[in-house]
Amino acid sequence: MSYGSGVQSAPKPGASITRRSFMVGAGAAAAELAGFASTRGRHQLQTTERTFDIANLPDAFVGYRIVQLSDIHMEEYTEAWYLERVVAVTNALKPDLVLLTGDFVSRGPLSLKTSWRAAGLCAEILTGLKAPQRYAILGNHDVAVGAEHVIMPLREHGTPFLVDSYVAIERGYDRIWLCGTDDATTTPDLRTTVPPDPRAPVLLMCHEPDYADDLMKMPQFSKVDLMLSGHSHGGQVRLPYLGPLILPPGGRKYVEGHYQLGRTQLYVNRGIGTVGIPLRFDCPSEITHITLQRA
Predict the structure, then answer these.
(1) Alpha-carbon span 251 to 259, nearest angstrom
(2) What is the DSSP string of the chain?
(3) Which domains does the chain have, with CATH numbers?
(4) pTM for this one?
(5) Left (φ > 0), alpha (ψ -120 to 50) or beta: where does 250 sit?
(6) Per-residue pLDDT of the chain (295 residues; tens, 9 = 90+)
(7) Residues 143, 168 contacting (CB under 8 angstroms)
(8) How far is CA 87 from CA 47, 209, 269, in A?
(9) Phi and psi (nearest 5°) for 45?
(10) Angle, to 10 degrees, between the axis of helix 147-156 and the axis of helix 112-126?
């Protein structure tokens, strides 16, 4: 009589060792991947070269070069030495203008006073930028810690802010308009942000890229040639077949890179720092080096 159906066969030693080895190896690989993402991955810095064709660009601004920096998130995870490196790389590009599109600090586990001190440190390091001009806007984290605590130290160290306002960038008798919205988590007013009759190209800084869908409903947006945003961090962690894993509200539709929205071009910078978790994988920090050309 056979009792084979009631007797479990002993595991094969070779197969058992292989499975254990696989699990150990997989765990080690995951740990190594996390270590890379939190150290080397987070400190990878990529300079992205972009040329934007702008209709009716004045002669004096053909070849005009802009560096966009965004989402520094000073001192939650972004170290002073890393921001100093960003400044050095930016200076080596010799831009005509540096634009900082928000989130200089973080509103997270740190205390408000820690965030305010971080804003001061960030402001001091950014004084090392050698471009002839630089301008900034607020991000949602800056507003969350108290906008005045970010604006004041940066202004005192030579970085003016555009908050629902605009300024003429002039070269000889030619000009372009640079505009900046308040953060989308407040009540930005595009009527005061964009000149009523610009008669020259208009560049708009707006921290949250997805807010473009709301801006497109406003008549003033039709005057904008190029919109520069950040906020999304490009997702911070990008995995094959899954794409970006960490996307905040306001940065889930337009995640990174170039988009065409009617006559307006949108560019989304991946940012310098991280928020939430100190990880970047397949999503390096970004310095965007922009050259303007006539369409």
Answers:
(1) 13
(2) ---GGG-PPPPPHHHHHHHHHHHHHHHHHHHHHHHHHHTTTTT-EEEEEEEEEETT--GGGTT-EEEEE----BTTTB-HHHHHHHHHHHHHH--SEEEE-S--S--SSS-HHHHHHHHHHHHHHHTT--SSEEEE---HHHHHT-HHHHHHHHHHTT--B-SSEEEEEEETTEEEEEEEPPPTTS---HHHHS-SS--S-EEEE-S-GGGHHHHTTSGGGGG-SEEEE-SSGGGSBEETTTEE----TTSSSS-SEEEEETTEEEEE---SS--SSS--BS--EEEEEEEEEE-
(3) 43-294 (3.60.21.10)
(4) 0.88
(5) left
(6) 433 434 433 333 333 334 443 233 333 333 344 444 456 789 999 999 999 999 999 999 999 999 999 999 998 899 999 999 999 999 999 999 999 999 999 998 778 999 999 999 999 999 999 999 999 999 999 999 999 999 999 999 999 999 999 999 999 999 999 999 999 999 999 999 999 999 999 999 999 999 999 999 999 999 999 999 999 999 999 999 999 998 999 999 999 999 999 999 999 999 999 998 999 999 999 999 999 999 9
(7) no
(8) 12, 24, 16
(9) -125, 125
(10) 20
